[in-house]
Amino acid sequence: MTGRLAGKVALVMGAGSRGEGIGNGKAAAVLFAREGAHVVCVDTQTARAQETVDMISAEGFTASVAEGDASRRDECHRLARLAVERCGRLDILQNNVGIPSNQRLEEITEEAWDHLMTINVRSMVLAAQAVVPCMDANGGGSIINISSIAGLRAYPARSTAYTTSKAAVIGLTMALAGQLGARRIRVNCIAPGQVFTPLVAERLDAAGRQRRATSGLIKDEGSAWDIAWAAVYLASDEARWVTGQVLTVDAGINITIPDNDYT
Questions:
Q1: CA atoms within 13 A on the CB side of 103
Q2: Residues 126, 119: Cα–Cα separation, whole Å
Q3: DSSP secondary structure letter of residue 156
Q4: Is 262 in the active site?
Q5: C-alpha dihedral sign at 190, 192, 197, 199
Q6: What local confidence, expressed as pLDDT, does residue 214 receive?
Q7: Residue-level pLDDT at 20
Q8: All residues at 6 or more sequence positions from 184 whose CB lies less than 8 Å from its CB, including other chains
Q9: Segment 1-46, tens digit of pLDDT
C-alpha cells in the first residue's frame, strides 16, 4: 500500500459485516488501515467489529473495536471521545450504517418509516455532530456518507422509505459541506450501485445476482472493495479540494437507458 492515510485516525460506523463476505463498512475499514490509518471499528455487535479488526491485525495493520449505536447522540459522542482517547486525534468519519425497506407507499407504517429514518439518516447527523469538534482540533477532516443510486433515481416500489432516506443523505452531505467548508472539514457522499454484499445476498437468488452483475455499462459484478477505494480517495489529502460531491460508483447504470443496445 502507499500510505495515503498515514498518521490519520478513522472512525468507521457499521464496520462489521452482517453475514459471510465483505460489506461496505468492513471493506472501508480494511483499506483505511492498509493505507496507514488507525481505524476504530464500530458496530452494534462487538463480534462483527472484532472480525474486521482481526482481519486488519492479521495483515499487520492497526485497528480497534468499539461497540456502539450510531442512532443515539450520547453513543456518538462517546465513540468520538473514545477515538481521541485511544489515538490522540480523529480525522475521518465514515457513515456507513443503513438498512433496507420492504413496504410500498400504501403499506408504510409510521413505526417502520421512523425506524428506517433513524438508522439511515439520523445516525449520520448525530455522528457528524460528535466528530466535528474533534476534527476542528486538528484543523480539518473528512466525513464520508454512504448513500445509494436509489437516492438519485426511481427504485423498486418496496424501497420507498429506503429511496427517500438515501436522497436525504445526499441533501445532508451538501448541507454539511456548506456549513463546514470554512473549517476545512470536507463532507462528501458515495452512491454505490448494485454491488454484491452480505446485506444484498440475503435477498437474492443466483438469477437475481447475475442480473444485477450485468446491469451496468461495465458487465462485471461490483463489490464493497469498489466502494471502499472511493472512500480512500475521499478520506485522503488527494481530495483536499473536494467537498459536497456525490461520487457515483455503479458501473454506469445511473446513466443508462434500460434495454438500450450501446454496441
A1: 15
A2: 11
A3: -
A4: no
A5: positive
A6: 84
A7: 83
A8: 139, 140, 141
A9: 689 999 999 999 999 988 788 999 999 999 999 999 999 999 999 9
3-state secondary structure of 26: helix
Going by the DSSP 8-state scheme, the letter that residue 122 receives in this structure is I
pTM: 0.95
**Residues in CB range of 153: below 8 A, 6 or more apart:** 254
Which cell goes with 62? 492497526
- The pLDDT score that the predictor gives to residue 1 is 67
Average per-residue pLDDT in the chain?
94
- Grid coordinates belonging to 207: 438469477
- Give me the sheet containing 38-43, strands edge to edge: 63-67, 38-43, 9-13, 92-95, 141-146, 185-192, 246-249
Measured at the CA of 133, the angle between CA 35 and CA 53, to 5 degrees, comes to 35
| CA 159 to each of CA 68, 93, 100, 153: distance values in angstroms, whole numbers, following the listed order | 27, 26, 7, 11
**202-260, pLDDT tens digit by residue?**
777 888 888 888 888 999 998 999 999 999 999 999 999 999 999 999 999 999 877 77
Residue 159 is given by DSSP the state: B
Distance of CA 243 to the CA centre of its chain: 16
Residue 106: how many CB atoms within 10 A of its CB?
A: 7
* Closest alpha carbon to 148 in 227, 213, 33, 48: 227
- Give 31-45 as a DSSP string: HHHHTT-EEEEEESS
pLDDT in tens, 92-131: 999 999 999 999 999 999 999 999 999 999 999 999 999 9
Q: Give the position of cell 468520538.
A: 80
Confidence of residue 162 (pLDDT cuts 50, 70, 90): very high
Q: What's the DSSP call for residue 257?
A: P
Count the residues in the chain: 263
Beta bridge partners of 13: 42, 95
